[in-house]
Amino acid sequence: MAEKSNQAPIGDGSLHVGDRVVYPNQGICRITGVAIKNIAGMDIEMVTLSREEDGATVMVPKAKVMGIGLRKVADVAAIDKVFDELASPVGNPQLDWKVRHRENAERMSGGGLFGTVEVLRSLHTLSRVRPLPPKERELYDNARHLLVGEIAAAMDIPLHVAEDNLDYALWPPQGMIRKGKELPPATLGPPAPVRTVGDDDLVSMMKRPRRRRRRLLPRSKARRTRTTRRRATRRTQATTPPSQRKLRRSRRR
User: Fold this and answer.
1) Are residues 43 and 92 in the same domain?
2) CA distance 79 to 23
């Protein structure tokens, strides 16, 4: 701890060299140092990260550390609250997928641990009703991968064990109990609606075919239609021989 106090703080002062951090776009990393790099003729202070998944080196400008959502790995108490959050019921999702995707992307980058949990939980609930679009499926996979890595890092367990725990939280089996409460088993599709008195009448009314209404044309368009018909009649009369005109008139009478 004495070494961290002598080092220059990173971001809001809570990060130091040697800390394990969560990078939303990369996963679990460790801060290995701070160095000045010359980029395009400018000296920029860069934070060097080592990605624990494959050992790759990631460099982030020190001034943008907080903007990209870099934060410390959560503790065990926070992970316990994560599983409580996953066990709680989900409200109605946003119907507009563009608005939903923008809100989830903002939660992933700046919402912290529970922002990632909210993204995963809402998209998981939606995926049980219908397939997710490609962009939302990618966002779901990123949130799941990030949460599995953070659970494994916080609880000091292997990745496959953390993934199993997360799967049990997302797809609770029959009779699973958490903190004395039985969790509802996971099912595909939306929950069955609760039928009340009068629902049969409402369903029969909804199934009744609607009477097709005659579409009324605007006054200007109706006037143009009548004019067009008159002109067509005049052209037909001009090209019709006189004998046929007399025959048509006699038939009308």
Assistant:
1) no
2) 17
The predicted-structure confidence for 70-82, as pLDDT tens digits, reads as follows 889 999 999 999 9
Q: Does a structural domain hold residue 217? A: no
CA 189 – CA 126 distance, rounded (Å): 9
Give the pLDDT confidence of 81-127 residue by residue, as tens digits: 999 888 877 777 677 778 888 888 888 888 889 999 999 988 888 88
- pTM (whole model) above 0.70: no
What are the two backbone dihedrals, phi and then psi, of residue 166, each rounded to the nearest 5 degrees? -70, -40
> How far separated are the first and last CA of the chain, in Å rounded?
112
Indicate which CATH number applies to the domain containing 100: 1.20.58.1290
Instruction: Give the pair of three-digit tokens for residue 62.
Output: 């020190």
Residue 198: which region, alpha, beta or left (left: phi > 0; alpha: psi -120 to 50)? Answer: left
Cα(126)–Cα(137) distance, rounded to whole angstroms?
A: 11
d(CA 175, CA 181): 10
Q: Are residues 61 and 104 in the same domain?
A: no
State the Cα–Cα distance between residues 49 and 72, nearest whole angstrom.
13
Domain that holds residue 64: 2-72
Instruction: Decide the pairing of beta strands 42-51 and 71-72.
Output: unpaired
Asked whether the beta carbons of 49 and 31 are under 8 A apart, the reply is yes
